[in-house]
Write a structure and sequence with these properties.
The chain is an alpha+beta fold and 610 residues long. Helices cover 28% and strands 22% of the residues. It is globular, with a radius of gyration of 27 Å.
C-alpha cells in the first residue's frame, strides 16, 4: 500500500510520457481519510475512461445507522450519495486536455431510485498496519483505523470513472496529480462525510423512498394494482426531460371520492389518493386531457422516485408491463394462438416465428411473452401467478388487434379474419389467469361492457364514470359478437437454445455496448429496445447485457425454459448482488426487472427456441 505523496510523485514523473505509461499507477493508495483504488487504466484518452474506487471507513463517513437500518433505506442512502458525489465531481472537475481528459463522474441519474453498483455500504479491506513511533496512539490517527488485513471493516465504497489528462497521447502529469491528489480528497470530503451533507435532505430522501416502497407492498392487501396520491404532479417537462413540469398551470392530481383510499406510511403519515383495483380498468377522455400522462405515471410507478419528483407517491404493482405494437421486431417460437389463428399459407401461430412482425402479431407476441415470464402454469390444476398487469395505450396499439366492431364483423366473416381482438380476451385473461389490465381508450366505447372500472380524465382531473358508461352501453347496444371462445387459451413455455446466443461475434472476447436506453450491442447484433418503455436508465441496459452473457454461461443448457433461466439469474442477483454478473467491480450497473431481461433476449434476431 502506497500513499498520497507516492501517487503524486508518480504522476509528476509520468508528465509528457506516452499515455499507456499511466498503467504504472494502477493499484491502491492510502489518503488521510480514504483509500483510492485504481482498478483499470484506459488505453487511450479517447477510449473508455479509467475505473477507480474510493473507500471511506464508517468511522470517517459517520452516517447514522438509522439511515441504512433496512435494505430499502440502504438503497435510498446509496442513491443519495451517488447523486451527491456525481454533482460534486461535476462541479470540481473540468476539461484538462484532449478526449475525456479531466472527467470525473459516476453515472447519469434520472428521477428513479434504483439499486446500483455505484455506491456500496459494505466490508472493505483495511489499510496495511502502520509503523508508529513509541508512545504514539494509532487510534488517534484520523482515517487510519488499526485493523488486521484478514479482518475487513465496514465502509462506504464509491465506484467512478475518470478521464486521465492527456495532450494528444502524451500524459499531462501535473494535471493528473491535481485531479487525483487535490480534487479527489475535496470531492470525498464534501460528498461522503455526513457532517458535510444536508442532513434534512438526506433523511427526506431515505424516508420518501421507504414510504414509497411501503405503499407498493400494501397494494395487495387492498386488492389494488396501482395508487396515485392526491397532489401528485404527473406531467413531465418534455419527452426527453423526465423532471416534473414546473408551471402555474399544472393541475395537481385529485382522486375521485369513490376511488379514494388511504394509507398510513411509516414517515409521511396518512397519504390518500386514487386506488385502481384488480380487474379491467379503462381510462377515457378527450384528447390532451391527461389520459396517457396518467398511464405513463402508472407505468413508471414500478420504481421508487426521488423527493420532489411529483410522482414519488405514484406506485404500481412490480409486475406491471407496458404492452404496445412493435412493427418490425423479430419473434421466435411464441404461441400467439389465443389471439391469432389461421394465417395465410398455413403459417403456425402456436410457434410463431418471424423477422418482421406486423403491428398485430407483435402486440400479440408482447403479451404472450409477458405472460410466459409472469405466470407459472406447470400444473394445469394449479395456476400460480405473480399477478401481471398489462398496461395498454390505444395510441401505441394496433387498431385491428384492439377492436373489431359489428359492421366489420358483418363485412369480413370470422373465418376470414385470423385476429381475435383484445376486447374479447381481456376479461378471460383476468378470469383464467388473474391478469389485470389498465387500458387507455378514447376511440371505442365497445370496451365499456368488459370493464370493471372506468375513469374519465377531464382537464387533467380524474372522475369515475363507470355507472354512466354502463348505462350508455345498455342504451346503445353494439350488436357485435364475441369472438374469444370460452377460455383465454394456453400459455406455453419456450426453451432458448444456447448456441443461438453469441456475444463474441465468433471471436474470443465478448462484445457488449450500450447506446442510451434503447439499444444493446450484443456480439454482432444491435438489439432494439426502444419499445420496451419501462427501461429508464442506461445502466439497466448495461446490466441486462451482462446478464445475457451470464445466462449463456451459467444457465442456458437447452433444457431450462426461458422463465427458469430468468428466475435463476434474478435469484443470483438477489443473493449476491449485481456484481455477480461481471468478473470485476463496475459502477454502471442498475437493477432491472425480469420482464425487461426477457424482452432483451426475446428481441435477439438470432434467438432460437424449442
Amino acid at each position: 500500500m502506497t500513499n498520497q505523496q507516492t501517487l503524486r510523485q508518480k504522476l509528476l514523473d509520468l508528465d509528457n510520457c506516452n499515455y499507456k505509461a499511466y498503467r504504472d499507477i494502477q493499484g491502491s493508495y492510502e489518503f488521510p481519510d480514504f483509500t483510492l483504488i485504481i482498478d483499470y487504466i484506459q488505453g487511450d484518452p479517447f477510449g473508455a475512461p479509467s475505473k477507480l474506487r474510493v473507500q471511506v471507513p464508517y468511522t470517517v463517513a459517520a452516517f447514522p445507522p438509522e439511515l441504512y437500518k433496512s435494505p430499502i433505506r440502504e438503497i435510498a442512502l446509496r442513491d443519495f450519495l451517488t447523486r451527491k458525489f456525481d454533482r460534486m465531481a461535476y462541479e470540481v472537475s473540468g476539461r484538462r486536455g484532449t478526449g475525456k481528459s479531466g472527467m470525473v463522474a459516476i453515472t447519469k441519474m434520472g428521477q428513479e431510485v434504483l439499486e446500483r453498483t455505484s455506491v456500496y455500504l459494505a466490508n472493505i479491506d483495511p489499510p496495511a498496519p502502520k509503523v508508529v513511533s513509541p508512545g504514539s496512539n494509532p487510534a488517534l490517527q484520523r482515517g487510519k483505523p488499526i485493523k488486521l488485513k484478514n479482518n475487513p471493516q465496514k465502509g462506504v465504497e464509491v465506484r467512478l470513472i475518470v478521464g486521465l489528462p492527456a495532450n494528444g497521447r502524451r500524459i499531462l502529469g501535473r494535471q493528473a496529480a491535481e485531479m487525483l491528489c487535490d480534487d479527489m480528497p475535496y470531492i470525498v470530503h464534501r460528498s461522503l462525510k455526513y457532517e458535510q451533507l444536508d442532513a434534512d435532505a438526506c433523511r427526506r430522501h431515505v424516508e420518501t423512498v421507504e414510504d414509497t416502497d411501503f405503499l407498493r407492498k400494501q397494494l395487495v392487501e387492498k386488492n389494488l394494482v396501482a395508487f396515485v396520491a392526491n397532489g401528485a404532479i404527473l406531467p413531465r417537462r418534455s419527452g426527453i426531460d423526465s423532471r416534473p413540469l414546473s408551471s402555474e398551470n399544472v393541475v395537481p392530481f385529485q382522486s375521485p371520492p369513490s376511488l379514494e383510499v388511504e394509507f398510513e406510511c411509516p414517515n409521511q403519515g396518512k397519504i390518500s389518493g386514487m386506488g385502481i383495483s384488480k380487474g379491467v380498468t379503462l381510462i377515457v377522455g378527450g384528447g390532451y386531457h391527461g389520459k396517457s400522462t396518467l398511464l405513463k405515471a402508472i407505468e413508471l410507478g414500478v420504481y421508487n422516485h426521488i423527493p420532489g419528483d411529483g410522482r414519488e407517491f405514484v406506485v404500481t404493482d412490480p409486475a406491471a408491463v407496458k404492452i404496445r405494437a412493435e412493427d418490425g421486431r423479430s419473434v421466435a417460437g411464441v404461441d400467439i394462438s389465443p389471439f391469432i389463428n389461421q394465417l395465410p399459407q398455413d403459417r403456425s401461430t402456436t410457434q410463431f416465428t418471424t423477422e418482421n412482425a406486423s403491428g398485430s402479431t407483435s402486440q400479440a407476441a408482447n403479451i404472450m411473452e409477458a405472460l410466459e415470464i409472469g405466470i407459472k402454469n406447470d400444473k394445469p390444476e394449479e395456476v400460480t401467478t405473480t399477478s401481471p398487469i398489462l398496461l395498454v395505450d390505444e395510441d401505441t396499439a394496433a387498431t385491428n388487434f384492439m377492436i373489431r366492431d359489428r359492421r366489420m364483423q358483418e363485412l369480413i366473416a370470422k373465418d376470414s379474419e385470423p385476429i381475435t381482438p383484445f376486447i374479447d380476451k381481456v376479461r378471460q385473461l383476468y378470469i383464467d389467469y388473474q391478469v389485470s389490465t389498465i387500458l387507455v381508450m378514447g376511440g371505442s366505447g365497445d370496451y365499456f361492457e368488459v370493464a370493471d372500472k372506468i375513469i374519465a380524465m377531464e382537464n387533467f382531473q380524474a372522475k369515475e364514470v363507470t355507472e354512466k358508461a354502463k348505462e350508455i352501453a345498455k342504451k346503445y347496444v353494439t350488436g357485435r359478437t364475441s369472438e374469444g371462445g370460452e377460455n383465454f387459451g394456453e400459455i406455453r413455455a419456450r426453451i432458448p437454445l444456447s448456441e443461438s446466443l453469441d456475444p463474441s461475434r465468433g471471436r474470443r472476447d465478448v462484445r457488449l455496448k450500450v447506446r442510451d436506453v434503447d439499444e444493446v450491442v450484443f456480439g454482432s447484433e444491435d438489439v432494439d429496445l426502444s419499445s420496451v418503455e419501462q427501461l429508464v436508465s442506461k445502466d439497466q441496459l448495461t446490466a441486462i447485457g451482462a446478464a445475457m452473457v451470464y445466462a449463456k454461461k451459467q444457465y442456458m443448457d437447452s433444457d431450462r425454459t426461458l422463465s427458469e433461466v430468468v428466475d435463476a439469474i434474478m435469484a443470483d442477483i438477489e443473493s449476491k448482488g449485481l456484481d455477480v454478473l461481471l468478473p470485476f467491480p463496475q459502477a454502471d450497473l442498475a437493477i432491472f426487472r425480469r420482464f425487461e431481461l426477457a424482452a432483451a433476449i426475446n428481441r435477439l434476431r438470432t434467438l432460437k427456441v424449442k
